[in-house]
Amino acid sequence: MKVTSLYNKGVFVVTGEVGPVKGAVSRDKNIDPSCSKEARFLQDYVHAVNVTDNQSAVMRLGSLAASIGLKERGIEPIYQLTCRDRNRIALQSDILTAYSLGIDNVLLLTGDHIQLGDHKEAKPVFDLDSVQLIHMAMGLRNGKDIAGNSIENPPDMAYGAVVNPNFVPLELQLMKMKKKVDAGAEFFQSQAVYDADLLERFMEKAAPFGAPVQAGVVVLKSPLMGKFMNENVSGIQVPQSWIDEIASVNKLDRRKKAVEMTARFIRSIKHLVQGVHIMPLGWTDIVPEILKQAEIDIRQSAFNWRLA
Amino acid sequence: MHATIQKPIEEIIRHIQPEEKVFVVGCNNCAWKCHSGGEEETKAMARRLIERDIAVVGYTVPGPQGMSLCKLDHTRKVLQKDYADQTAQADSFLVLGCGQGVHTVIDATDGGMVHPGCDTIFGGETISESDIQEFCSLCGECVIEYTGGLCPMTLCSKQLLNGPCGGAENGYCEVDKERPCGWVLIYERLKKLGRLDLLEPYQKPKNHARWSRPRTLKVSPHEATFCSQAGKVTVNNQI
Q1: pLDDT digits over A179-195, tens only?
Q2: Residues of B in contact with A129 (CB under 8 A)
Q3: Structural domain containing residue B217
Q4: A54 φψ region: left (φ > 0), alpha (ψ -120 to 50), beta (else)
Q5: CATH code, domain carrying B107
Q6: Does a structural domain hold residue B131?
Q7: Could you report the per-residue pLDDT of B113-147, keeping only the tens digit for each?
Q8: B130 within a domain of the structure (yes/no)
Q9: Which residues in chain B are contacts of A235 at CB distance < 8 A?
Q10: Is B230 within a domain?
Q11: 3-class secondary structure, A89
Q12: A173 closest CB neighbour out of B157, B164, B196
């Protein structure tokens, strides 16, 4: 099921995110990999779940295998595909493979640099950038590979892209976003934002492009995590006020506090965007309560979507 | 210029066999500027090898300061005529220069055994006597017309052609927080020049075949032919 059909109906789209396991999936079908367990928590509360592609350049189970795993369990995956580890042959082949295996949604992105991960001596590929990747994916949908050759049974999937509202200078990020829209990106998921005013200023500029945007929300679990993200995670700045607020309660109460803070933030921004993309970083179990407190209930729209 | 740094002496001598007679060759252009293979470093290398009981039969830096080792005819004359007695005794040549210089010595000695004494690290601009920086990746297909002359293939860690990734923070690259994001540099330069419009068109994927190796260039006063896996490209030199 394509998430674009939700946007077309004006549904507020909620997605979650899981990272594939560091290792293989057990051949014993009764043993669920941890990413599937996490996704199960989300299943009834989100429309779809992103599956990251060797996130932060840390080598893991392939995002396609994990996406198929979710699909088999009745969870709609958004398969993330990055330019970091694949040239244009591999990217196209993986897009064809994904469609052939039943994937309906692909998020096309550049990918974190190898220097951020656990295989720092690997050769970075970056044969294409994300704009060129979207162009190429649209070419496949239209029956042509990037070299201009005709292909059989062109894949038909929803193509998403990413954007970072925190980027300075924003004008430069918007120029790239415009190129992605022109290339064929049908929806956007944003990098994590913690500042409603910043998001509002971003959406004033981005809305005219006409593509739906989901605001990225990363659950802040502890003051230490905020500090770590500010120092190590590219493109995200956690404000001191958030760090102070999560630090204001003891460890046992942090889940509750994280729910309260995240829900309050989502409530304050949901009128600005066409959806939210929640990255719970392992705390998938609190997502239902976040959405409840944020006054977002997707169950009916998800039911209708799955039925269609 | 080709920037080089010397390999550690322990690594160099590990590859020299017992009783092997070595002739040391420096380069009086790029390696001289990098202090990795000019006259002083070449002489010092000969002394350091002798101190470690390596049989050094001679050393030279062909040509005056500013002349490159990779000028084959001159290097051949120096090694085969000016230093004929010493090079005739040599089992091998330790080259303090870039990889092109090492190959020049192979050609200049009609196939002599060589040892690289340096790592060739990049092609750079000599900003000052103490500062060499990389601005070109020698990719074979120049894209800097629309970036105000700043190369995204070199200044962007991901070699992106259509703008920045989302990873930069405060104008610095996600890979190295002390290095400016190449795309922010491009943006600021074009903004200053009043030419941000140059960034708007979509840039197609690069033809990496022009970056295939090895590549050749045949030149005459009238024309130049560049040969890569992308095929032959001949241009007329209008003089």
Answers
A1: 999 999 999 999 999 99
A2: 158-163
A3: 207-239
A4: left
A5: 3.40.50
A6: no
A7: 999 999 999 999 999 999 999 999 999 999 999 99
A8: no
A9: 166-169, 174
A10: yes
A11: helix
A12: B164
